[in-house]
Amino acid sequence: MDGEIEILVSEEEFQELKRHKREFKSNLKNLEGLERTLRVLQYRYLTEKLAELEKKLEEMKEHYSSLIEFEKMAKEDKVYLMGKRSELSEENRRLEAKVRGHEGSH
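-> structure tokens emitted (106 positions)
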């Protein structure tokens, strides 16, 4: 009795069930139809959600790549600017020494 249930009912209840047999079958078909519809809607929802998540993942990958590139450029800029700063400091020291040398001779 795979998937079947045996229910004991009185003769009166049996006759009542027989009278409503068509209604029960109709309700069962409606229920099966609703279950199919629900499965279709669940599948549609899950596939749409999956597509949205895949799109967001791609966007995040692109943003991450942009951030990595920006970080690389920032590090390069920092190295360049530190070099320029060092050059300017050295030039400033030379000019200050030159100015002091001229002040002492006047």
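The two ends are 119 Å apart (CA to CA).
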